[in-house]
Design brief:
Order of helices and strands: HEHEEEHHHEHHHHHHHHHHHHHHHHH
CATH architecture of the largest domain: Alpha Horseshoe
Distance between the termini: 39 Å
CATH topology of the largest domain: Serine Threonine Protein Phosphatase 5, Tetratricopeptide repeat
Number of helices: 22
Radius of gyration: 23 Å
Strand content: 5-15%
Number of strands: 5
Helix content: 55-70%
Number of domains: 2
C-alpha cells in the first residue's frame, strides 16, 4: 500500500517510542486536530526555514491552562493551550516558536551536563510516548483529540534553561523574526505577559517562568534590539488567516459554549465567527444549528477538507451515520493523505456494521495507520474492523499495539501472546506482535 511504513521501520519506531514507557508519570493531554495542526504548520514554516530546522519539526499543543512552551528534543516544540489562548496575534505565536526554535538551533539541549543526559532522554521519550498516544481518551464529544501522556516534575527541571541560554535564544529569535518578515515587537509583547511573575512564589508562577528565567536584562536587550531595527512589519494575510482559525477552534472547543456565543456577534457572517458559532452550538449540543453554521462555512469554502471533517463529526456524534459517512468521504477526497481525517472516516464507516461498510472501514483505517501508526483511538477502531472481518489474530496484534502505546504493558503482552498463537509464524502481524512482546518484557525488567 503506498505510503505504508515498512515492517522493520514500524518495529524500530515502536521500540523507540515505547522504550521509556515507565517514565510517564503525571497525566497530561495532547491536542490532536487536523485543522489546528495545519494552522500550526503554516505559522511555523517561515520561522523554521530561517532557523534552519527541518519542516518536519512539529508543534504540539498540550491541553493545560497554564502558560508555557518548551522543547524536549530537536524535533518537537510543545506549547500549552493556556499560553495560546492568551496570545493576541500570529506574530506573538511566531515569537514563541522562534524562541523555542532557537533553543534547538543553538544546541542548548545537547549542551547539558552528561550527568543529566540519560534523564533528559527519558523525559524526551516520555513526551514522545504522550505524542504517540494521539486521541487516547476515545471520547467522541470533541473534535480535538486528547491524548494521555506526561512527565514528572524532575523531568521538567531538565528542560529549564540558563540565563545565558535565554539571552542567546532571544537574540537568535529576534533575528529569525526579522529575516522571516515577522514584527519583532511581538517578542516584547510576549515577555510582557510574564513580567512580575518572578516576584511570585514558585507555586503561583506559570511554568514558563520557572524554565525560562525572565530578567530585566532580557527585557532591556529586546527593547534595545527594537530601537535599532524598527517594528514596521505586518503579518502576512496567510498567517493572520490561519492564526484566526486556530484561535477560534481552540477557544470554541476548550471554553464554555455559552462564553463563545456571548462574545461572537450573532450578526457577524464572517468565516471565523461562523466557525466559532458552529463549534459552540455543537457543544451545547444543538446539532441542527451547528450544521447550519457549517453549511455556511462550506458555501464560503467548498473545497476545505477541515470544514467537511467538522460536518462529518457533528453528523456522526448526532448519530446521523449515513450523512456522516458521506461528509467524511468528501473530506478524504480533498485530503487523502491526512491520517486524522482518514481515522474519522473509518470510525464513521464502522457505525452501520454491515459487511460492505466494515470492509471499507478496514481499508481506510489501514491507510490511516500507515501514516500515523501510534494513534490509540484509530488502533481501537482498526482492531474492531479486523475482528469484524474474521481476523482475530490481527485484531489482537493491533490491540496489543494500542495498549503498548498507552503504557499498559501487561495488557499489551497478554494480547501480543494471543496474537502470536493465532497468526502464521513470520507473517507481518506475527512480527509486530513479537515487537510488542520484546518492548513489554524490557519495560517489565526496568521496573
Amino acid at each position: 500500500m503506498p505510503g505504508r511504513m515498512p515492517i522493520i521501520g514500524r518495529a524500530i519506531a515502536l521500540a523507540v517510542l515505547l522504550a521509556c514507557a515507565p517514565v510517564v508519570a503525571l497525566a497530561q493531554s495532547i491536542i490532536r486536530d487536523a485543522e489546528i495542526e495545519r494552522a500550526l504548520q503554516e505559522l511555523a514554516a517561515p520561522v523554521f526555514r530561517v532557523a534552519g530546522l527541518p519542516q518536519s519539526t512539529r508543534v504540539i499543543i498540550i491541553n493545560d491552562g497554564s502558560m508555557n512552551a518548551f522543547v524536549a528534543d530537536a524535533r518537537h516544540i510543545f506549547v500549552h493551550s493556556g499560553l495560546l489562548l492568551r496570545l493576541d496575534s500570529p506574530d506573538q505565536l511566531q515569537a514563541v516558536l522562534a524562541h523555542e526554535a532557537a533553543h534547538i538551533a543553538n544546541g542548548h539541549l545537547t549542551a547539558r551536563p552528561a550527568a543529566a543526559a540519560s534523564a533528559q532522554t527519558a523525559a524526551r521519550m516520555g513526551l514522545l510516548l504522550a505524542l504517540a498516544a494521539g486521541a487516547a481518551s476515545g471520547e467522541g464529544g470533541a473534535a480535538i483529540g486528547l491524548a494521555a501522556g506526561g512527565m514528572s516534575s524532575a523531568q521538567r527541571s531538565l528542560m529549564a534553561h540558563t540565563r545565558a541560554e535565554e539571552a542567546s535564544a532571544d537574540q537568535s529569535a529576534l533575528r529569525y523574526m526579522v529575516s522571516a518578515g515577522i514584527d519583532p515587537e511581538a517578542m516584547l509583547e510576549v515577555l510582557d505577559l510574564f513580567r512580575g511573575q518572578e516576584a511570585l512564589s514558585v507555586g503561583r508562577q506559570d511554568p514558563y517562568v520557572r524554565s525560562h528565567p525572565l530578567t530585566r536584562d532580557r527585557y532591556r536587550t529586546v527593547q534595545a534590539f527594537l530601537a535599532t531595527r524598527g517594528t514596521d512589519a505586518e503579518p502576512s494575510a496567510a498567517s493572520a488567516y490561519w492564526y484566526a482559525r486556530l484561535n477560534a477552534k481552540l477557544s470554541a472547543f476548550l471554553r464554555n459554549p455559552s462564553w463563545t456565543l456571548r462574545r461572537v456577534d450573532r450578526n457577524d457572517t464572517g468565516e471565523i465567527a461562523t466557525l466559532s458559532r458552529a463549534i459552540a452550538h455543537h457543544r451545547t449540543p444543538d446539532a441542527d444549528r451547528a450544521l447550519a453554521e457549517v453549511g455556511r462555512l462550506l458555501q464560503m469554502r467548498p473545497g476545505d477538507p477541515f470544514y467537511q471533517e467538522l460536518q462529518g463529526q457533528i453528523l456522526f456524534e448526532s448519530r446521523r451515520f449515513d450523512a456522516a459517512i458521506a461528509a467524511y468521504g468528501r473530506a478524504v477526497e480533498l485530503a487523502p493523505r491526512e491520517p486524522l481525517i482518514l481515522a474519522g472516516y473509518g470510525r464513521a464507516l464502522l457505525a452501520p456494521d454491515s459487511a460492505a461498510s466494515n470492509a471499507r472501514a478496514l481499508d481506510v483505517l489501514s491507510r490511516a495507520q500507515a501514516r500515523d501508526p501510534f494513534d490509540p483511538r484509530m488502533l481501537r477502531d482498526l482492531a474492531l474492523a479486523h475482528a469484524r472481518a474474521g481476523q482475530p489474530g490481527m485484531a489482537a496484534t493491533v490491540t496489543a499495539e494500542r495498549y503498548a502505546v498507552l503504557g499498559r504493558m501487561e495488557d499489551a503482552a497478554a494480547l501480543a501472546n494471543r496474537a502470536v498463537g493465532l497468526l502464521p509464524q513470520g507473517s507481518p502481524g506475527w512480527i509486530r506482535a513479537q515487537d510488542v512482546l520484546r518492548v513489554a518484557e524490557a519495560a517489565q525488567r526496568r521496573r
